[in-house]
Structure formats: C-alpha cells, structure tokens
Amino acid sequence: MAKSGVFERDPTDNLKKELQKLVKTIVEDSSDDEILDQTLQILQSLKQGIQYYPQEFNCPLSKQIMMDPVIICTGKTYDRVSIQKWLSGGNRTCPETGQVLSHTVLTPNHLVRDMIAQWCKNHGVRAQNSPGSNPINPVQYLDEQGLTEANRKHFRSLLKKLSLSDSISEKKEAARMLRSLTKKNPAFRGFFGECSTAIPELISPLSEMKNGVDPNLCEDVITTLLNVSIHESNKKLVVETVNVVPVLLDALRLGTIETRTNAAATLFTLSALDSNKSVIGKAGGLRPLIELLEEGHALAMKDAASAIFNLCIVHENKTRAVRDGAVSVLLDKINHRVLVDELVAILAMLSSNQKAVEEMCDLGAVSCLFSVIRETTCARNKENCIAILYTICFSDRTKWKEMREEESRYETLSQLAENGNSRAKRKASGILDRINRPFNRTHTA
Q1: Using CA of residue 168, residue 169, residue 173, residue 179, what is the dihedral sign?
Q2: 3-state secondary structure (DSSP) of residue 52
Q3: Bridge partners, 93 (sequence order)
Q4: Residue range 132-184, pLDDT digits in tens
Q5: Is the pTM for the entire model greater than 0.85?
Q6: What gap in Å lies between CA 418 and CA 434, rounded to an integer?
Q7: Would you give the DSSP letter of residue 277?
Q8: Beta-sheet strands, E only, within 72-225
Q9: φ, ψ for residue 18 (rounded to 5)?
C-alpha cells in the first residue's frame, strides 16, 4: 500500500536538488558566504541523516527551514530575516502573491513555530555544529531580531573598538565590518534601535570631522548610518540622537563624493517622517543639499534632489529652500535637461511660495517650462510645468505677452487643454481664459 503524507516522501530528493543548484552557483557565478553556508548545511544534514524537513517548514524566499516564522499582511508566512531583507531592499509587495502591502508589520506565527519545534523533537534533530548534544529546536538560537547572543557580542565589540580604540586602523576595520553587517542583515540594523549607546558610538569618530577624518573611515560610518536609517523603527531615533544631523551635514560639505552621496541618501531616508523633515530643515540641511545638486556630480544629484523634495513637503522648508538658492539651481539644471522629472516636481512644490514665483519670473522660467512641455512625453511633467505657469500667470501679468506668443507659435496651451490629464487641462484652460480676456480700460473725457 502506498504511503501518504508529507513525512513519507523520498527523504533526500529535495536536499540533493537544492545542493546541485548551490554547487552550480558556486562553480559558475559566486562564492558568497551565504551560499557556502547553505551548501555546508545541506551536506552536514545528509551526513548526519537529517534527511529532510517537511516542505511546509521552508521559507518561500530562502528555501531554508524557518528559524523565526512571521506572517505579513497578506497572510503569507516567511522567515523573519528573509522577509526583512526583502522589505529593506525597497520591496513593498508580497513575494508570493505580488499584492501591495498595506503595512509591513511582522506578526510571529506561533503555530508554525511550534510545529517546527515539535517536528524537531519527534525526529531528534541535533544542532549541526554540536555533535552529541541534546535534540534542539532550531528556533531557539535566534532572538526576535534574528540575532544570536554571539552576534550581539561581536557587534558590541565592534562599536566599542570604533569609539574607544586609539588605533586608526582598528577603527577603520570596525567601521568596515559594521557597514558590511548592516548591509547584509536587517537584524543588525534593528539592533541599533534597542541599544541606547549604539548610534553615539557609531558616529563618535566623526564628531571632530572639521579637524580632519580618514576619508575611508568617514565613508564607512556614514554608509552604516544610511543602512541603519533604512530600518523603519530607527528613523526617529537616529534624528533625535545628539550630533547625528550635524555630522551628516558636515559629511555633506566635507566628505568625498561617495560620502556626500550617502549622506544625502541618509537624509532622504530619514526625511520620510514629517517630524524629521522639520528637524533637518531647522538644522540647515537644505543648503548643502542644494550645493551638492548644483555641483552636478551624476552619482550624487539624484539623492540630493530626492532629499530636497522630501524636505520641502513641510511648508517652512520651502521658505528655507528658496532662501538658500534652490530656484536658480533648479531652473539651471532643467534648462540643461538634467533630472527634469525630479526637479520640475520640486519647482512645482516651491511655486506655492511667492518669493519663489518672483524668482522664476526673473530667471526666465516661462520659456523654460513651455519648452519642457513641448519636448516631454511624460504627463506628470506636463502637469507640473503647467501648474507652475498657471501660478505665474495669476501672479505676474507682465508674462501674459510671452504666453500669448507661445500659444500663437506652438499652440502649446490649446493642445494641453485638449489632450492633457484632467489637472493639466484645467490649468491650461485657465491660462488661456486669463491671457485672452479683453483688457478693460477706463476712458475719461
């Protein structure tokens, strides 16, 4: 009689197939530590007779047994470390269903966790690195962050070395390791949120940056801070930690281009919170970002523009950006067709500021924006350009003649009023109505 059920399948087929894939990857493409670890784990399992786990215990992402199963909002279960890595990579969909996630809260799946523990107990699974030890539940080795106590001890030692060592080479090695760990494992980013001294220790070598800091050390510390800031629950903590924002602004002004780029990316990441937008703006964060954008380094401009956009969502930061010279820099880059999508969006946001509109008029924004409308195929760019022109039209009637000439020569407004999206149609029609309105004069005898 044929056997049925998940425990009666060929015990080694799945492991052997996975082993073949991993070996092929190692030979042809990669010697990544994670792949090597997975290969050794499967080999050790086969050697010790731990022949298979039920497929249901494997994480859909890592294809390995789940050490800390958690449920996401779509109801699917993943290993915590794997799904955190997925989310930290900027993904906001369910890996299996493709659904957009309404939130990223991870809920422990106690049922699956207990099932794995019970299966391990029933099958006498032993710790693979401890022959002869008692049967174990593999879940117990990791805490809720996905870190072992050895991980934590090592991490603390690196932070102490970075903050207390008198040796610059030791500091550099510690910073390099911290950068690597926080890049590869989201759990290490989470550690900063639970250790009150971690962030101050991390930035301590940069507290006197104006007096000169090794450029590689500076880059590794700032990049680690960027990695830490990606973790959603760290954003508020990072900005509220004493000296973090000043250190980032010093790095923006004084670092190598790689360091400045990562400092801008960190400010962009942190500015996802409205409260952080205000803190960064008050600290003077907009001016060095605008200067970085103006310099025109391809590597840095997009991060600088993204940070400026986020910060200017808060009203008071619009005033600061205009004061710090944003309008002229934005128009110059747009005229040279650099990052048009991003910079037109920032300019549209600033057009609610009267001083910004006055500067736009003085700097030739009307012809610049009309030329973008004619050239671009992007509906959002057309919409943003016409929204700015609408504000200019209702703020400065001396620009009406230029707008009439544009319409007479290219019919730009008429075409947009007919073919644009709903907002662009309204704005274009409003401008046409305004500039074609008869001019009433009062005659006296």
Answers
A1: positive
A2: coil
A3: 100
A4: 333 334 443 444 455 677 788 899 999 999 999 999 999 999 999 999 999 88
A5: no
A6: 17
A7: H
A8: 77-79, 107-108
A9: -65, -40
